[in-house]
Amino acid sequence: MAAGFGYELGELAKIQQDFRSIQQRMGELSERTGRIKGVMAKAVATDLAAGALGNVVGFGVVVARVRERVEAVQQRMATLEAAKNELTRNLGADVAKLGSIAKQYAEAERRAREGLAKPGGGARPGQPTAPKKPGGAAPAPAPTGPKKPGAPTPAAPKKPAGGGHGGSGGHGSGGHDPAPTVSHEGAIKVGQVTYDGAGKYRSGEAACREYISRALDAMGVTDPKARAAWTEGMLTIASRESTYNAPGSQVNAWDSNARGATVGDGKPAGCSRGGWQCVPETFAANHVKGTSTDIYDPVANVAAAMTYIRSTYRVAADGHDLKAKVQQADPNRPHAGY
Predict the structure, then answer these.
(1) 91-120 residues labelled b (16+ CB within 10 A) or e (exposed)
(2) What's the domain of life for this entry (predicted)?
(3) What whole-number distance in Å separates Cα of residue 293 and Cα of residue 186?
């Protein structure tokens, strides 16, 4: 699971500034090597044998050896100069590329802000972020960053009672969400993962908060402080991974995970999916009993993501160390994969 490219605009600007500083130092190095070359050339041109020491026995041999060494140093200087010039040219090209990338980031952030301003949270423009579940993933453009959740802690949990998340035949409100069949298995086989819910579930921070609450119910997390810690961290991840389950960001069909046979949603089997961008293998291995097998079901998706985080990063059951161990869950640190 990943969050964009993993860089902020300020970081790109700093890298660009560092490259320019290196270019300046290369210029200073050119001046110094130029002076050294001048001294060496003068040394080679000086006819010491014609001076007062010319009659000293063996002096000519010494002068010949000195000249050989000076010429060897000159050859090394020429090699160094060629390498330096090539590096300087490459640095110049990299500075230009960084400037272009910074502009692309700024445009992506502008479009993300426009999308988030629309009702329902809006879809993030461009590609959704890529996961780093087993197999890793290439980063993709990300929104400006999550808003630190400030809503009250989710209500006291209700144990799932079958038929759907929350015991009411589904976990939507007002008929907006499907009513998936709940599985009473924990870990499942990859072949049991279903893909029927693509684009059918609600998006936005409030909806994701509800989905997290119901996933915590299924996982048996009842302590208010633990629920608050998990809710804040997983909301931050959802904002970075899928812009709170926005329809256009629920499947990543273009990163390194996007391979394998086409499955039920018409996408390659390996694609990361859902509000928390699980790949099917990880979703299946970390599936939580009492949630559906639909990878697009946000309750099942976030429950599997929390189980994965606990086992992979050794996060405590109460989630008190979630933000410390998983950077992507910390709104005060830059985006990073998880």
Answers:
(1) eeeebeebeebbeebeebbebbeebbeeeb
(2) Bacteria
(3) 10
What pLDDT is attached to residue 26? 66
Amino acid at 229: A
Look at residue 256 in the predicted model and tell me its pLDDT: 83
Number of domains making up the chain: 2
**Is position 338 within any domain?**
no
Q: Is residue 336 domain-resident?
A: no
Q: What pLDDT score was predicted for residue 71?
A: 72
Q: What is the pLDDT of residue 150?
A: 39
The pLDDT value recorded for residue 166 is: 38
DSSP β-bridge partners for residue 272: 252
HSE-up of 152 (CA within 13 Å, CB side)?
A: 3
Distance, in Å, from the CA atom of 22 to the CA atom of 175, rounded to the nearest integer, reads 60
67 and 198, same domain (yes or no): no
User: Same domain, yes or no, for 276 and 169?
Assistant: yes
Q: Is residue 334 part of a domain?
A: no
Let me know the angle formed at the C-alpha of 203 by 199 and 208, rounded to the nearest 5 degrees: 125
Domain that holds residue 200: 119-329
pLDDT along the chain (338 residues), means of 10: 46 63 67 67 57 57 67 72 68 62 62 51 38 38 37 39 38 65 95 95 97 98 98 98 95 88 93 96 97 98 98 97 97 92
Q: Which two tokens stand for residue 229?
A: 């810690």
